[in-house]
Task: structure prediction
Amino acid sequence: MGAAAVAAIMRRREREVVDDFRAAGATSRETAQSYTAVGLGQSLGLRRLRARAVIREAAPGTYYLDEEVWTAVQNTRRRIGMVFLAILALFLVGILVGTIK
Result:
């Protein structure tokens, strides 16, 4: 399995965690819920979102989805992807220009 496939699987699992928090209504400090109430166990996707402060602890044992941070994480990932594509395009143009001479 390639790195792109692994990244896609991780993004999907993170989206599933986000969807579970939304479905449970745990989207603010006031509506925070436990993992079991949200229907989650410990998972890599959940740990990654907690590390990025997308899932925050409101009180001991209760958590919520921070929508603003989730949007910022998605925007950052999108920008990184666009920069990667721009660098790849420049690299390909450089190869084409080099072979024309």
In short: The chain has a mean pLDDT of 90. The chain has one domain: 3-100.
